[in-house]
Inverse folding.
């Protein structure tokens, strides 16, 4: 039995099982038979017009090729394996959150109402002016006292993961620096690709330069629309300025759509009503912290790296000054203004880059989060 046939044009042998070999073989059959072959007869037939292709002996209909000889094998092209960089390019992180506008589970929130099982804010030292956010300077002694209190509250025996954070006050770069810190802690190669260095904290000239590249890329691309309001937008813009970055182990999880009453159906079950969705969001986030150690999470338009939780609060690393204290509290549900600060309504406290945030404040206001698989 012969497996090859001579190509009359080149004089070389080709396989009779390949496309070229089949063509040459068919032409030889035509010459020998002196007329149309079975394939030619099949070729004239249509799919839906009588006489139909499928009803004729020796003929079959093949999508994309028409009516062909029944014993002709049509092979599917093999799918090429994609590298991790190609996989990254195929995921549009920004669009993942936008999709929830169409596919999300809609839940109407009751603004300012604090479910009883999420109460547990703690008294904080310092004056409480009638504004929704205050900043206080802290002494070295108070900072150390805060660190010790945190370790006790969250049962942390080892040192906190970073000795110093970046002070991004006034730069609106929290999502960029939060994601960069996550890369430093979990994927140093991605961090080096972004910053071009492998130390934390990066000098201001370094991170501010990269931040400038990001904002320029975001503004120059009309499809991106300007700002970076969530983690998905930030990561998508990093891919523009650092096309070689390997994010194959990064997992992005949008919680809400751009319409923030629409929730991810993979996290919030259909038929869930307020405030039961908080527990479902809580489980998803706390499971990831347990398993991966660190996640980057955006709440209330502010992004931090979260590393631990207890019964009432979550612990996060924020990028603010070494001796700066910030307090934030909830909005009053009865009117559009803010309540005066009291010990019962302070939901978010940051001292020297370490934040303690009430769970209700996190799970009500979370937009999206991300993590690196171990």
């Amino acid at each position: 039995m012969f497996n090859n046939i001579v190509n009359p044009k080149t004089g070389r042998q080709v396989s009779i099982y390949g496309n070229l070999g089949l063509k040459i073989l068919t032409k030889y059959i035509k010459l020998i038979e002196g007329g149309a072959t079975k394939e030619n007869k099949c070729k004239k037939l249509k799919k839906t017009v009588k006489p139909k292709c499928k009803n004729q002996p020796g003929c079959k209909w093949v999508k994309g090729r028409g009516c062909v000889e029944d014993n002709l094998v049509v092979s599917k092209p093999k799918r090429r394996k994609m590298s991790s960089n190609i996989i990254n390019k195929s995921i549009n992180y920004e669009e993942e959150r936008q999709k929830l506008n169409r596919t999300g589970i809609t839940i109407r929130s009751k603004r300012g109402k604090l479910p009883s099982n999420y109460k547990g804010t703690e008294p904080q030292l310092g004056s409480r002016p009638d504004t929704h956010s205050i900043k206080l300077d802290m002494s070295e002694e108070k900072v150390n006292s805060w660190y010790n209190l945190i370790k006790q509250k969250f049962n942390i025996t080892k040192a906190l993961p970073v000795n110093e954070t970046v002070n991004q006050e006034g730069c609106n770069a929290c999502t960029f620096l939060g994601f960069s810190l996550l890369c430093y802690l979990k994927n140093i190669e991605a961090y080096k690709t972004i910053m071009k260095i492998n130390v934390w904290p990066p000098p201001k000239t370094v991170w501010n330069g990269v931040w400038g590249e990001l904002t320029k890329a975001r503004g120059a691309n009309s499809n991106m629309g300007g700002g970076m309001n969530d983690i998905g937008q930030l990561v998508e813009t990093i891919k523009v300025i650092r096309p070689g970055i390997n994010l194959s182990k990064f997992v992005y999880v949008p919680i809400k759509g751009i319409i923030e009453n629409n929730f991810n159906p993979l996290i919030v079950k259909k038929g869930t009503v307020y405030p039961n969705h908080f527990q479902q969001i809580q489980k998803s986030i706390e499971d990831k912290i347990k398993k991966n150690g660190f996640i980057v999470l955006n709440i209330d338009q502010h992004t931090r790296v979260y590393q631990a939780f207890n019964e009432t609060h979550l612990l996060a690393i924020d990028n603010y000054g070494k001796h700066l204290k910030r307090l934030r509290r909830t909005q009053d549900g009865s009117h559009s203004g803010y309540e005066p600060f009291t010990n019962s309504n302070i939901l978010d406290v940051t001292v020297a880059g370490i934040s303690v945030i009430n769970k209700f404040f996190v799970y009500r206001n979370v937009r999206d989060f991300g993590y690196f698989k171990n």
